[in-house]
Amino acid sequence: MFTAADFIPEKYTSTIENGSFQWSAPSNIALVKYWGKKEHQIPANPSVSFTLKNCKTNTKLTFSKKEVPNAFSFNLLFEGKPKEDFKPKIQKFFERIEVYLPFLKEFHFTIDTQNTFPHSSGIASSASGMAALAMNLMSLEKALHPKMTDDYFFQKASFLARLGSGSACRSVKGKVVVWGNQANIKGSSDWFGVEFPYAIHDNFKNYQDTILLVDKGEKQVSSTVGHDLMHNHPYAEKRFAQAHENLDLLKNIFETGNLEEFVKVVESEALTLHAMMMTSMPYFILMKPNTLEIINAIWKFRNETKIPICFTLDAGANVHVLYPENSTKKVMQFITTELVDFCQNGQYICDEIGDGAIAQ
Ligand code: PMV
Predict the structure, then answer these.
(1) Which residue in 69, 112, 160, 247 has the most C-beta neighbors within 10 A?
(2) Mind listing the pLDDT tens digit for each residue in 276-333?
(3) Which of 223, 274, 312, 313 to mutate to test the pocket of ligand 1 (most atoms within 8 A of CB)?
(4) Distance of CA 162 to CAs 7, 9, 133, 175, 222, Å?
(5) DSSP-derived 3-state class of residue 287
(6) 314 lines ligand 1 (CB under 6 A)
(7) All domains of the chain, ordered by start, with CATH?
(8) For 125-169, how does the pLDDT look when each residue is reduced to its tens digit (9 = 90+)?
């Protein structure tokens, strides 16, 4: 049985004075949603996501040994410029992970980070950002302990990313990642994300995700507040059980390639996530009128064309439009003629299933 103590390292075998690493990590889109958590970023239910390909954070970590290892010390650059308001989140992240990376106070770090997606697009960069930083920190730990196996490297990177932002643990690997213990998914764990361990039907090969930017503003409800609202939520227990059931359904759908069933599970999950927010106390509506316009237009288009296009939502108003690669032409024509008008400044991002973090 795995415990968190398994990621507390023994004495390192090597030393390093200074250097740098660079990793990119993608965003991910959940199909079964993580909403609600216990202490230490343990999810209240298992989730599964598609790792994306184009929406990424690219982070360079430069490090040099300090004279006195007394406190965390780092600079943060976002798109080449100092970014003070990201620092408290990194400080908190370092505090949480220090027990697993005891060298952190021994170095001064410069964290130089940028996203491929537009600044303030309403796309959360916490998953890709925390995953990219965790990968770099693991490269440094590997330099201190060169015998580390690849399995340990990636599992611990996901474990650390989780402590930065829960869903970030699903951004280390591709293409389909499960996070959270689920009875019928071998190797699934509350501590880190694992690659979906069974066959995936060709229907899901290069599955497309076009992200329609409906509202690019700051999130109305931070995910920390959102997860917290699931404590004492009247429907919480039923919802957590449903996530396990939906994961069972998806496991079967990934094997058979049944896209009609895929559409049902994915849209129901998105609406359930929003239903949880609407029925918590305090309550929130995170969809905008244009979110509903888009959903209705997708349903109409699906009915008329029989193309198995569907939507999913994060904790916000933007819509992820999911569809198989072989219908890209028709769906893009539909998006550019009928949906762009509902996007803020006509903006959308074309993405698809991807492979996870990459060393640069
Ligand atoms: O990782 P967090 O704490 O930002 O939570 C993410 C929650 C959702 O995006 C709404 C769902 C999910 O599983 O990604």
Answers:
(1) 160
(2) 999 999 999 999 999 999 999 999 999 999 999 999 999 999 999 999 999 999 999 9
(3) 223
(4) 13, 18, 11, 18, 16
(5) coil
(6) yes
(7) 4-198 (3.30.230.10), 209-352 (3.30.70.890)
(8) 899 999 999 999 999 999 999 999 999 999 999 999 999 999 999
